Each structure stands twice: as structure tokens, then as C-alpha cells.
Amino acid sequence: MDTRRLLSSTVLYGVANIAVMAVGGFLLLPLYTRTLSQGEFGMYVAIRANIDLLTYLLQFGLPSALGRNYFDYKKKQQQHEYVGSVALMFLVMLAAWAGVLALWGDALWQWLSPSTPAQPYLALSAAIAAASFPSAVAALWLRMEGRVMAVVGLQVGSAALLAVLAVLNLALLRTGLVGLLGALLASSALAAAVLPKLLQGRLRLAWRPQHVKATLHYALPVLVGYIAYFVLNRFSTLVLQHHVSPQELAVYGLALQLSMAVGVAANAFGMALQPRVFAAEQAQAQAVLRHAARLFTLLMLGLTGGLVLFAPELLALVGPPGYAGALPLLVLLLVANFTSTFTLISDTALLYLRRPKTSVAISLAGAAVAALGSLWLVPLLHLEGAALAVAAGLVTRMLLSHWAAAQALDYSAWGSMLGGLGALAALAALMAGLREVALPPGMATALKIFLTALAAGIALARHRYTRSCA
């Protein structure tokens, strides 16, 4: 495998993913937390969760199925015809959900988010979710064609538009939450508008039974997996809305959003890795996975460790003093999100072996743990209970996914998994102890820099030793 090419693609996709996270409020979080009141930001956290749920339901797993089947149809020179079938399936889903929301949308919204009014937020959320499909297909098409720079340009352009409109609406026009959602909608619409140009008139809407069958074979398990992912990461947010004020929800939402930086980096690596694995023969795929697992663990351990070390500084940079209570939640969620490192590798192996149902079953198990944990812990511990429930679900998913992949392929990384989690837990405990000692700021920063350099040196030496023994 070309390590340099894999790393360069990972970096470029990472840039694009960071741009996408700006749409979700990562890069622009300081603007959001300082121009919206804490209560308004809490409402934004609730609305964002509802947008994610609507997006999964409207997309119906179709983009993922398109990505998995694309190469099969490209070999037959039928890729444009297949894209047309998938687009028609989406339009059918869009019409069906539009009817549901027209009839029962307000009641469903109030059931999900009792502290947030349905109008105008329901209509704006549905529009954002609908625009996400063509924008996702545009990025996916470019990625499957290997046009990495075009993917980066598309997503960075959408993020730049969001940044401009967010500053204009929030900081200058003071349009508040409605203005922020309008900026999100415009950003998604820009990416969606690129799709017709990419297809250059070659798209033909047609209902092909063979295309529908092939798509649903992957789309239905992926949809269930997306819902499981939503439950795993966002169900605690839904439960919290029934037990805490929007101000408290804002604190939890900020910690959850910042912790997802680890998942962004993991997904960037996955975008670069999966096309190489899916296009490989089985013996070659195993070699790619083994090499990638070592490299990926090193990168993600360094990133997560750095975020844990500098979590107080990061939180102070992003949020006003009213969000200080998010620190322990953020550290716990960062360590828990590190498990995405190993889950992505093992899930890629399962998808390569055409076992999406196994991957979905594992996601459902993790989601069940997170949901039951939320229902049990949130009423007792509120914010801390929500973070613990998410962490329990993520760890459960990681362990089950890796076990299934180890059974299917001659691949195992139990030592790296447990060692990485143990190292991060020890680092978090050390940082908590240092905060109790209350070192001078300069000394504390110097100590963190030293620990970062020491850990990087040890990890690099171990990686080189492992490669020399391979």
C-alpha cells in the first residue's frame, strides 16, 4: 500500500471533514456561544439533533448504498443509470416524509423537543435535511472518482459560505437562531447545486427493479445503522431535554460537539482507506487493514491525547465562562470517541466481506446500551449520566465490532485497543490531579508540552519497531 498517498488523502479528506463540521457548529462554535444566549444555544443543540434524525430518515441509507455499489456498475458502464435510479428512490422517500410532516410534524417535534417551538424550526430543519442528499451524492461521486481536491474544494466552499452567512446573520444582523439555520440551509444548497453540473445531463430518472434491489440490500441495513448511530450519540440529548433546562443542555451539547473532533479525524481516514480496501483482493485487503490499523492507532492516539491534555484551554477558547462545567464531560467523551479508531477498521473489514447485517447488529447493540443507559442514568445524574451512557455505548460497539472482524479475518488488535484506552484514561486522571494541584499556568502548559512530546516519541518508536518486525 502507498503510505504516502494514503496519508496525503487522509489529510485532504480531513480538511474537507473539518469544513463539514463547521456546518454542524464546530469551527464556528465560538461565534455561536458568544452571539446566542446559553438558552438559545441549548435550543440549537436540540434542533441539531432533530436535523440529524430527519437527515437519516430522508436519505434512507441511499448514499452509502450508492458508494458501495458504484464500482460494480462502473465496470458495466452503467453508473449514470444507477445514480438516476437512486435519485428517484430519494424523491419517493422525500414525498412520503413530506406528507408525514405535514400531518403530524408539530406533534412529533413537541414530543422530541418540548422546550423548543416547532415553528419555524421544523420547516427549516426539514429543508436542511432534504438538501443534504444531493450534497452528499455530489461529494460521494467525486470521492469515488478519486478527485480528492474537488471534494475538498466543494466542502470547503460550502463551509466558507456558512462562515460568511453566519457572521452576517449572527454578528451583524442579529437574526439569532433563525439566521443561523438559514446559513446552514444556504451552505447545504450550494453543495447540492453542484450535482447537476457533475452529471452533465447524463442523469436519467428510471425505476429499475435490479437497481432498487441492489440498493435496498445495502440501504436498509445502513439506515438501521444510522438510526443506531443516532441513538448511540444523540438519544441522550433527547432524554436530557425532558430533565434539564436549555441552559444546561447547552453545556452538554458543547462538550459533545467538541468531542466529535475525534470522529471527524477517524472518518477522514476512513474516506481514504475504504475505496482501497473495497477495490482489493482479499489477501491484499488484509495487508491494507493491518498496515492501516497500526498507522491509524498512532495518529488517533496522538490526536486524542493532545485534546485531553489541552481540554481546559480548548473549552475556554470556544465557550464563555458559563460553559466551564463541560470540562469533565468533554474529557470523558473524548476518551470514549477514541474507540471510533478501531470500530472504523473492523467495520471496513465487515463491509468488505459483504456482511453489513453484522455491522448493523453491532451498532444496534451499542445503541441499545446507550439508550438504556440514558433512560437509567440521565434522570439520576443528568449531564454526567448522559455522557456515561454515550461512553458505554461506544465502548460496547468497539468491542463487539472488533470481535466480529477478528472472527472473519486473521486480524486482531486487542492489545493496541486496550493499551490506547488505558493510556488515555491514565492521562485524563493525571490531568485531573494536576488541576487539583493548581500549578501556575506557564508551568502547566510546559508540562503538557513535555508530556505530548514524550508520548509522541514513544509511539513513533513503537511504530517503527512494529514495522521492522513485520
Automatic annotation (TrEMBL):
Protein name: Oligosaccharide flippase family protein
Classification lineage: Bacteria, Pseudomonadati, Pseudomonadota, Betaproteobacteria, Burkholderiales
Superkingdom to which the source organism belongs: Bacteria
Membrane topology category: Multi-pass membrane protein
InterPro entries according to UniProt: Poly_Biosynth_Transport, Polysacc_synth
Species whose genome carries this gene: Azohydromonas lata
Compartments where found: Cell membrane
Pfam families: Polysacc_synt (PF01943)
Record has rRNA-binding as a keyword: no
Keywords: Cell membrane, Membrane, Transmembrane, Transmembrane helix
Membrane-spanning intervals of the chain: 12-33, 53-71, 83-105, 121-142, 149-171, 177-195, 215-232, 252-274, 295-317, 329-353, 360-379, 385-404, 411-432, 438-461
